[in-house]
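REVIEWER CHECKLIST
Item 1: Sequence provided? yes
Item 2: Single chain? yes
Item 3: Sequence as submitted:
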Amino acid sequence: MATDPRLYLIHIQEAAQRIHAYTNGHKETFLNQIMVQDAVYRNLQTLCESAHRLPEPLKQRHQHIPWTDIKDFRNLLVHDYLGSISPAQVWDVIVNHLSVLEDAVREELAAIDRRSSNDEA
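Item 4: Structure as written out by the authors:
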């Protein structure tokens, strides 16, 4: 049985919110505090895993998002591959790529909510 995509979208949204809360938007906070890095990495892992599990039709609606890169990024975070990713690279992902995914998640959740309210009417 497939899991409701709404749950994955919520996981992504919550993980992104935590990342923003932990870093408070400050690069120095992220780069200089190991506990913040650990928390951010863990939430990025959750976010990437949930994004990977989204159904293909949803991903097709957002072809501008590099879904394969998200999956590959998760593997780098989880397995570390001999330190192949630096905190500076992770910060770059947070600053330059996370908002695109967050926008798509908000759009999909709003569409699900609209469909739900139409079904109830």
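Item 5: Key structural point noted by reviewer: The CA atoms of residues 76 and 84 lie 7 Å apart.
Item 6: Recommendation: ____
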